[in-house]
């Protein structure tokens, strides 16, 4: 993973972790220990799904840039399906508070997307790779012989 990829992951991870900590505190106050556990599970699920998606998307962008847009759409569909399967499996659970889990899942996802968008907008990414061989050709093509 390159440094700007790690930086982008960190810029999305830190605010999500912060909102997750706030959600755990609020859920603990409102719904007790089960609420805190539900908020923690929701935060961890968002960080796992969105973080893995970002890593996969960055690796695809480096190795197969022509598939970047298609891979992004496939990745977001896969993320939604993964969360849907998780929700179906834990629909009637008594392990944690499902309302705290749901609100934290929604809030953490929105924070992750906003932070990732902000990180992409602030990143100084080259769109064209500088080619030293191309500049030498251009310099020698214009010089008199």
Strands, total number:
0
Structural class given helices, strands, pairing? mainly alpha
Largest sheet: none
Oligomer: single chain
Low-confidence stretches: none
Supply Rg. Answer: 21 Å
Helical content stands at over 70%
- Per DSSP, the total helix count is 4
Shape: elongated
- The proportion of residues in beta strands is under 5%
Average pLDDT number: 85
Q: What does this protein look like?
A:
- The structure is a single chain.
- By secondary structure, the protein is mainly alpha-helical.
- Helix content is 82%, strand content 0%.
- It has four helices and no strands.
- It has helices at residues 3-63, 68-89, 98-122, 132-142.
- Helix 1 (3-63) crosses helix 2 (68-89) and helix 1 (3-63) packs across helix 3.
- The longest helix is centred in the first third of the chain and has 61 residues, at 3-63.
- The radius of gyration is 21 Å and the shape is elongated.
- The termini are far apart.
Any key phrases for this structure?
145 residues; mainly alpha; 4 helices
Summarize the structure in short.
The protein is mostly helical and 145 residues long. The chain has helices at residues 3-63, 68-89, 98-122, 132-142.
């Amino acid at each position: 993973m390159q440094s700007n990829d790690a930086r982008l992951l960190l810029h999305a991870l830190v605010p999500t972790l912060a909102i997750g900590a706030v959600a755990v505190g609020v859920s603990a106050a409102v719904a007790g220990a089960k609420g805190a556990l539900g908020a923690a599970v929701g935060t961890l699920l968002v960080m796992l799904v969105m973080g893995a998606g970002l890593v996969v998307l960055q690796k695809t962008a480096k190795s197969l840039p022509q598939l970047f847009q298609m891979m992004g759409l496939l990745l977001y569909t896969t993320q939604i399906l993964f969360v849907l399967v998780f929700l179906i499996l834990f629909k009637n659970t008594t392990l944690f508070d499902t309302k705290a889990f749901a609100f934290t899942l929604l809030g953490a996802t929105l924070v992750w997307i906003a932070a990732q968008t902000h990180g992409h907008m602030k990143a100084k990414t080259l769109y064209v790779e500088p080619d030293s061989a191309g500049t030498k050709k251009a310099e020698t093509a214009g010089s008199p012989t």
